[in-house]
TrEMBL record:
Protein name per Swiss-Prot or TrEMBL: Dihydrouridine synthase (Dus)
One MF term in the entry's GO annotations: tRNA dihydrouridine synthase activity
Gene3D superfamilies: Aldolase class I (3.20.20.70)
Swiss-Prot/TrEMBL cofactor(s): FMN
Transmembrane regions listed in the UniProt entry: none
InterPro entries (UniProt xref): Aldolase_TIM, DUS-like_FMN-bd, tRNA_hU_synthase_CS
Alphabetical keyword list: Flavoprotein, FMN, NADP, Oxidoreductase, tRNA processing
Organism: Candidatus Electrothrix aarhusensis
Amino acid sequence: MNIASLLLNNPFILAPLAGYTDLSFRLLCREMGADLTVSEMISCHGLVYGQEKTLIMLKTVPEERPWAIQLFGNEPELMGQAAALVSKKPVDLIDINMGCPVRKVIKKGSGAA
Ligand SMILES: Cc1cc2nc3c(=O)[nH]c(=O)nc-3n(C[C@H](O)[C@H](O)[C@H](O)COP(=O)(O)O)c2cc1C
């Protein structure tokens, strides 16, 4: 399976799950056959302003390739800055969360909003 130039060996992709898909969980899923893993959704605001809890979510290891980072936010300028920041990391794909229906996310204009 291909996603642009990214070639996956199998079609099993670990969906992004806020509160679950940390590095340990992602590595377990990779052991179980996932060929692409995705971070928890990561706040663009937290990334750009260097919030410690957010930066921890970028943690990965070389065995975890290919992997994707999912961003969420509500300000195009910050989204762009965050994407530029993460593109300097060892990451294969940047995904934008445009579907999260959770109240605290949509009330700030992010996710599904
Ligand atoms: C606890 C939980 C957290 C989730 N977090 C995210 C998230 O951060 N980003 C996202 O795009 N989807 C998130 N989702 C949606 C899942 O990635 C997935 O699309 C959804 O559960 C449907 O998957 P299914 O079709 O395999 O049932 C979350 C779902 C659950 C249950």
